[in-house]
Design a protein that fits this description.
The complex is a heterodimer of chains A (257) and B (441). Chain A contains 11 helices and 3 strands. Chain A is mainly α and 257 residues long. Chain A has a single domain, classed as Cytochrome Bc1 Complex, Chain C (Up-down Bundle), CATH 1.20.810.10. Chain B has 441 residues and is mainly α. Chain B folds into 3 domains: 69 residues; 206 residues, no CATH class; 106 residues, no CATH class. In chain B, a hairpin with a 4-residue loop joins strand 2 and strand 3. The longest helix of chain B is centred in the N-terminal third of the chain and has 31 residues. The mean pLDDT of chain B is 93. Classes of the chains: A mainly alpha (257), B mainly alpha (441).
Chain lengths: 257, 441
């Protein structure tokens, strides 16, 4: 007890935490206002609004899973090399020889869970009518986040570079070649010609843009790796920040008006 | 295929633990009902059920083909014979509609608990079938099983709150959410809930990761195409739509419309009621539309695409062996063939060789006149027609632009079930088929 007191009275502790332990009403309010991680929250909240039977905690769980994916993903990036030579072997080694290879399981099952919790979060928001004014635009941001979650999962699916990976991505990305006008098998692409020369070929269409090649190959692996590890997570993080900020600005956690 | 001894040895440990878990669950439920609620009758029912589950657990652990509890072979054969896309889709629709109409009955805790037990028991009995287990136990398919149970649970949770609220609203009382408007401090009430949730999710994820290794198949080979080739599970609803539409519509236009429609939803739903609390009666139209899209056009199609579509994307019953040699008759016809060949008894119009572009385009339009007329009527005439009939009230409240966006999104969403029904009844492949510009619909 005495050690705890000494620590809490030290200059270091006091420079980090600007208030005593949140044991009384005043300090429970102060902690919410002065702590960076807690300041996302309001100070007080409707009891009904945070009841588990009402919120299912699905939005929070989705965000937590995003953090799990970020941490496990960064650790996996130390190990995994996105080249035809090494990608499969690195995953194989994660399974068979590497200590903490379970990080891959955590990352993969966390990703599946995140897709499911996103759907359940949207389902709850719909069922409580929480997309209605004044929260319309936050729902729109949420839909974009749903799309980004699916794209994160889809781009990550290729990285193990096994049969499951390339054929799932092949089937999925084959859709892009049927894009109206912009895919070389899509309706209307025949109309886009200049002087009798086709503008849309299998080396210039939407699928080529997605894969970086005519088929799923090394260029695709590199492209999906960059999208998966950098581009989409950054976009997701930005939109998450806006999503949370707007929850506060659009009237706080939802409840009857 | 018969359940071989090897298979049963592999699955026995899992099934034993599974039935023991169900037994434990029911034992705890019985204890709560007896001690906390004083419902001795129900407590007895679940105690007996719990004991029965313990018996099943010990039988399963025997790993002997005679003793492991399973559905009789004749039942499995019958299910396989009669299941198909038509029965599956219509059956799911009827089941969900029935549960919606009789929701006051189904949300009762004891009814819901009995249904959950029935689901778990059926799942356990099915897992003793090698064909069923080999698909369900594929590592990447396990999340979908979890999704089904979670959706069932959360739909029950939401519906039971909505039923209570709807009843209170009908009696002129405020909703449960409105009545409890007490405020609490975020520290400790919310931050501790969040902490406990994080610990629980972490524990759950760790157990999942320890028990189930992530899949890793053979190294990628661009010359060895697996049969079936499937997209990741969350896109299998879209892949299933490819049965009924070409990729440009099923894989590009419809998914884009889903995203656009979801984004447009808050701006189309003009109903001010039902904001911030569970209710069905106050927003029946939006509720049913969302559930139709989410459950029937998304979730059930994912389940169909994952568990019931095998080699060559043929349909297989839940207990059927996925043979690549299954042959299905393909006798689908296009509407122009039906119209010119079947109805008018004439050959399809064909431009003479060397005809000018204008003549060729005209011939195509003539050939496709029936399909174009139908689609034109569907997308151009129907929205205004609905505005003065079924959606008269909607039109008055929404105004022209919002109404048109809503009506077109609805009609485009309905193209999928309509095309399904046309395929099942008339073997219709395309309503419009213009291969000259790769446009088939």
């Amino acid at each position: 007890m005495a050690i705890g007191e000494t620590v809490r009275n030290s200059q270091i502790w006091k420079s980090i935490f600007r208030h005593p332990m949140p044991l009384d009403r005043r300090n429970r309010i102060v902690v919410m206002l002065t702590n960076f991680f807690l300041h996302l929250h309001p100070v007080s909240i409707k009891k009904q609004g945070i009841a588990l039977s009402f919120t299912w905690c699905m939005g929070g769980v989705t965000f937590f899973l995003f953090l799990v994916e970020t941490v496990t993903g960064v650790l996996l990036m130390f190990y995994y090399r996105p080249t035809l030579e090494w990608a499969y072997n690195d995953i194989l080694a994660l399974r068979d020889v590497t200590s903490l290879g379970i990080l891959r399981e955590l990352h993969r099952w966390g990703a599946h869970a995140m897709v499911i919790t996103t759907w359940l979060h949207m389902y709850r928001v719909f069922l409580t009518g929480s997309y209605k004014p004044p929260r319309e635009f936050n729902w729109v941001i949420g839909v974009i986040l749903l799309l980004l979650t699916l794209l994160l999962s889809f781009t990550g699916y290729l990285l193990p570079w096994d049969q499951l990976a390339i054929w799932a991505i092949t089937v999925g990305s084959n859709m892009a070649r049927a894009t109206p006008f912009l895919g070389y098998e899509g309706p209307g692409q025949q109309l886009l010609t200049v002087g009798g020369i086709d503008m849309i070929t299998d080396a210039s269409d939407a699928r080529f843009g997605l894969l970086g090649a005519r088929f799923v190959g090394e260029e695709t692996l590199n492209r999906f790796y960059v999208l998966h590890c950098i581009a989409i997570p950054l976009a997701t993080a930005l939109l998450l920040a806006i999503h949370f900020w707007r929850v506060r600005k659009d009237g706080g956690i939802s409840g009857p008006l | 295929m018969h359940a071989s001894g090897f298979f049963l040895k592999d699955v026995a440990g899992f099934l034993g633990g599974y039935y023991a878990f169900v037994a434990l669950m029911n034992g705890i439920a019985a204890l709560i009902l007896w001690r906390k609620k004083g419902q001795i009758g129900w407590a007895l029912v679940w105690t007996v059920f719990s004991i029965a589950m313990m018996v099943l657990a010990s039988l399963a652990l025997s790993a002997s083909p005679e003793l492991v509890p399973a559905l009789p072979a004749s039942v499995r054969a019958t299910v396989n014979r009669y299941s198909g896309p038509v029965l599956y889709t219509l059956g799911t629709f009827a089941l969900l509609m029935g549960m919606f109409i009789f929701r006051k009955f189904f949300v009762r805790p004891m009814v819901a608990w009995a249904l959950l037990n029935a689901m778990l028991l059926l799942m356990g009995l099915s897992m003793a079938d090698q064909n069923f287990a080999s698909i369900v136990m594929k590592p990447d398919n396990v999340p979908i099983v979890g999704l089904v149970f979670m959706l069932a649970f959360f739909t029950w949770l939401a519906t039971s709150q909505a039923v209570v609220n709807d009843d209170r609203i009908a009696r002129g009382l405020p909703t449960v959410e409105k009545e409890n408007d007490e405020k609490v401090l975020v520290w400790p009430d919310l931050v501790y809930t969040e902490l406990i949730c994080m610990v629980a999710v972490s524990a759950f994820l760790l157990i999942w990761a320890i028990c189930l290794p992530a899949p890793l198949e053979e190294p990628a080979s661009s010359v060895k195409t697996p049969n079936p080739s499937k997209a990741p599970w969350y896109f299998l609803g879209l892949q299933e739509m490819l049965v009924y539409f070409d990729p440009w519509y099923a894989g590009v236009v419809l998914p884009s419309l889903v995203i656009f429609g979801l984004m447009a939803m808050p701006y189309l739903d003009f109903n001010k009621k039902g904001n911030g609390y569970y209710s069905i009666e106050e927003r029946k139209f939006s509720y049913l539309t969302y559930q139709f899209g989410f459950f029937l056009l998304w979730i059930t199609l994912i389940i169909l695409g994952t568990f019931l579509r095998g080699p060559n994307w043929n349909f297989f019953g839940p207990f059927e062996y996925w043979t690549p040699y299954k042959v299905e008759v393909l006798n689908n016809v296009d509407l122009p063939q039906m119209f010119w060949g079947g109805l008018l008894d004439r050959p399809l119009p064909k431009a003479p060789a060397g005809a000018s572009g204008l003549v060729q385009a005209g011939t195509i339009l003539l050939r496709e006149c029936a399909g174009l007329a139908i689609m034109g009527a569907y997308l151009v005439l129907l929205p205004p027609l609905m505005a003065v009939t079924v959606f008269r009230g909607f039109y008055a409240k929404m105004g022209f632009v919002r109404y048109m966006v809503m009506a077109n999104l609805m009609l485009l969403m309905l193209t999928l079930p309509i095309k399904m029904i046309l395929r099942w009844t008339f073997n219709l492949r395309y309503i419009i088929s213009i291969p000259e510009i790769s446009l088939n619909f």
